[in-house]
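Structure (tokenized):
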């Protein structure tokens, strides 16, 4: 995906220091490239802990788990204008794997909330994943130490909430349970 560029001439570090703190940019040979904010270490810790449990469960099984950055092209078979990069995805249909990501809806998507992504993850991506048929969508809140699980049934998500003392079943992976105490252990 090509980065968005600021319109203007050759930028310097002095210019960079004046830009809005809510936006992150890289300068490469004087050209500015937009970046998503880097997640906090807590976000990375939770992501790693979740990934590890899923990876261990899936060892030797046909489904695969992937961590960001990983392109998910939800409507690649039509307009191909929707690409997201969830924190973690599980894909059981290996025919969907292509290049740097997934073509079509993954079986499971996990988003870990950050202050800058909360609304996007809980509203925009919720509707998007439901519309495109992601069978299970997890939203993890590291600050509250909660997990909200959305399971797709008849085109609509049904929701359950778990805390750090619970064990959460993964509905798309029979027999898989995630120990949330280990997820939020950081």
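Design, position by position:
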């Amino acid at each position: 995906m090509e980065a968005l560029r600021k319109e203007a001439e050759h930028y310097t570090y002095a210019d960079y220091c004046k830009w809005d703190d809510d936006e992150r940019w890289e300068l490469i040979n004087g050209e500015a490239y937009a970046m998503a904010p880097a997640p906090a270490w807590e976000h990375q810790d939770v992501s790693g802990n979740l990934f590890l449990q899923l990876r261990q469960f899936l060892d030797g099984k046909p489904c695969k788990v992937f961590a960001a950055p990983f392109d998910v092209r939800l409507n690649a078979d039509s307009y191909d204008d929707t690409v997201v990069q969830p924190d973690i995805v599980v894909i059981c249909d290996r025919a969907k794997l292509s290049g740097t990501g997934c073509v079509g809806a993954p079986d499971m998507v996990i988003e870990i909330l950050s202050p800058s992504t909360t609304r996007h993850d809980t509203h925009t991506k919720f509707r998007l994943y439901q519309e495109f048929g992601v069978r299970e969508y997890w939203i993890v809140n590291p600050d509250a130490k909660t997990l909200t699980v959305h399971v797709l049934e008849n085109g609509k998500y049904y929701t359950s909430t778990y805390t750090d003392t619970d064990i959460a079943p993964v509905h798309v992976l029979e027999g898989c349970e995630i120990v949330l105490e280990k997820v939020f252990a950081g």
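Reviewer-requested clarification: The longest helix spans residues 41-58. The chain has a mean pLDDT of 84.
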